[in-house]
Amino acid sequence: xxxxxxxxxxxxxxxxxxxxxxxxxxxxxxxxxxxxxxxxxxxxxxxxxxxxxxxxxxxxxxxxxxxxxxxxxxxxxxxxxxxxxxxxxxxxxxxxxxxxxxxxxxxxxxxxxxxxxxxxxxxxxxxxxxxxxxxxxxxxxxxxxxxxxxxxxxxxxxxxxxx
Length: 163
Ligand SMILES: [Zn+2]
Description:
alpha+beta; eight-stranded mixed sheet; 4 helices; 8 strands; 15% helix; binds zinc ion
């Protein structure tokens, strides 16, 4: 995943050549160039997710110390299932178990490309629940993707951010 924006890319033997999120004119590539990390590295750095009840029926997941731009995810707990609104990059077994104890995830909705984070891995860890973006990308397509068991994104439609 990109260390600057926290967006996860499909598994590969070599890092991707570039991050289209960071190369967008609204973001930036750091002075030291494109940097990549992995879920294992984030855990090895001592990062953990915290799950906090903001109010009845509304949870927040945040990573401490923060990753990328300090994304947080909200979990709306509804009778029809739990919906993750936006996403965080760190996915670990402890967080997955904590969410399962609260009913797991039925869907993931992303409001902005900076919150794509690790939606594919969160989806795969949640019985491949649907992940969708609520906003069109610059190319005009919406990013609707599912994660398969191997953790790779399977875009339903062509989208630069998911290639
Ligand atoms: Zn990036």
